[in-house]
Design a protein that fits this description.
Layout (H helix, E strand, L loop, with lengths): L9 H12 L7 H9 L3 H25 L5 H10 L2 H30 L7 H18 L1 H30 L2 H8 L6 H14 L19 H30 L2 H6 L3 H7 L3 H35 L18 H17 L3 H26 L13 H23 L7
Helix pairs in contact: 1-7, 1-10, 2-9, 3-9, 3-10, 3-15, 3-16, 4-5, 4-15, 5-6, 5-13, 5-14, 5-15, 6-13, 6-14, 7-10, 7-13, 12-13, 13-14, 15-16
Length: 410
């Protein structure tokens, strides 16, 4: 059987990870977090970064010792030796990928129609044909495209921060507004609600482990790239949230559907247009990343006898899992063109937190198993706290599902 091509280094993998995390969500999410946290939205993002970092640590530790495609399924299989649970986890990850890609593709239409009037069906079809074709063509080409759009997204954030620089000079005199009183439980509850929402902006780093068999020296490169992607995105999220609350009145920030564009409109209309274009690029990037991730999980499951073997077939020339890639692209196209995805998006958020919980518990199990503990050097308290936090998030999700409230996705 042909093998995947190992061609990704630390820089490319980190950019790929940033592309999975820094989706279009950052351009709209700050206002939604401010509904709960108000001026303390930056603190909500810091707490969300902490919570995401705990699960990210577990992923980094496991990826160093089990650098395989279908990462989460392999981790659960190694820890618990329960094949049905491992298969379920693998398909849960695939489901989150295809629904996320379909949701992103539907979002692409709204941004594209700012520039050109085109029917939804054809806009989605052309996007997915191009992204599936690129993922089929080769991992190098796909990751370079992801890196280019990620760099474009980072440029957009840098432009926003550059124009926002004068507002940061007011931090000293406004610090009393931005630091919550430690004893006010109501304010901190709002900050925590904001953190639960902001957490979804960090989802995506887990996709990196499914590129393991295409990474050079994955035992070293994968964990470093995961941590680097989370740290860089956390800093950017905090600074962007801070720029938003410093420049926009709270009622305007909460009501804004595009707070970053609204900030830029205060400084330069032409740059506001450019930021809107970058948002479009971020959406294209998000669809490509999810197609790549989903196909690699299916490839890994086929290779480990958790799914039909034909899903693990590698193109003899392109060195990509071409059948899995085409299948993922087809399923995403059907979902994006034929189904309303609001309920599926909520279900996806719930599923990914369940996966995070199982990954944390898998690391705990391996750390305390005599046969394997010598191979795992992670700090045991990190996955324990991570698992507890996941249970808290699941509780919030269940409450939101019962109450019918809406979660803003990544």
């Amino acid at each position: 059987m042909h093998e995947l091509k190992r061609s990704l280094n630390f820089s490319m993998l980190t950019l790929y990870g940033l592309g999975t995390i820094l989706g279009a969500g950052i351009y709209v999410l700050v206002g939604k977090v401010a509904i709960h946290a108000g001026l303390y939205a930056p603190i909500s993002f810091l707490l969300a970064a902490l919570l995401a970092g705990l699960s990210g640590y577990s992923y980094a530790a496991l990826s160093a010792h089990l650098p395989k495609s279908a990462g989460e399924a392999v981790y659960v299989e190694t820890a618990f030796n329960l094949r049905p649970l491992s298969i379920l986890v693998g398909w849960m990850v695939v489901l989150t990928g295809v629904v996320s890609a379909a949701t992103i593709s539907k979002g692409f239409v709204g941004y594209l129609q700012v520039f050109i009037d085109i029917p939804d069906f054809w806009a989605i079809s052309m996007l997915l044909l191009a992204m599936t074709g690129l993922a089929y063509w080769g991992v190098n080409e796909s990751v370079w495209a992801t890196a280019a759009t990620t760099l474009l997204g980072l440029l957009g954030l840098m432009i926003i921060l550059y124009y926002s620089a004068p507002s940061f000079l007011t931090l000293a005199e406004r610090s009393h507004e931005l630091l919550p009183p430690l004893t006010d439980g109501g304010i901190w509850f709002g900050i925590l609600l904001g953190a639960f929402l902001a957490f979804y902006a960090f989802i995506g780093f887990e996709d990196m482990v499914n590129m393991a068999e295409e990474v050079k020296q994955p035992e070293v490169t994968l964990p470093k790239a995961i941590i680097a992607a989370i740290v860089i995105s956390s800093i950017l999220y905090y600074l962007i949230a801070l720029a938003a609350v410093l420049q926009m009145p709270q009622d305007q920030l909460i009501a804004s559907k595009a707070p970053m564009a609204d900030i830029m409109n205060q400084h330069s209309e032409s740059m506001a247009w450019f930021v809107s274009f970058i948002s479009l690029a971020a959406i294209v990037n998000g669809a490509l990343v999810q197609i790549i991730m989903g196909s690699r999980v299916m490839y890994g499951m086929g290779k480990h006898n958790m799914a039909p073997l034909w899903l693990a077939k590698i193109h003899p020339v392109r060195k990509t899992p071409y059948i899995a890639t085409l299948l993922i692209g087809l399923v995403v196209w059907v979902l994006a063109t034929q189904f309303p995805l609001t309920s599926l998006a909520k279900l996806t958020s719930f599923i990914i937190i369940m996966v995070f919980f199982l990954v944390n518990v898998a690391l705990i199990k391996l750390l305390f198993t005599k046969e394997t503990k010598d191979h795992f050097t992670a700090k045991p308290w990190v996955p324990v706290v991570g698992a507890i936090m996941c249970l808290m998030f699941l509780g919030v999700q269940i409450d939101q599902i019962i109450s019918g409230s809406t979660v803003v996705g990544h």
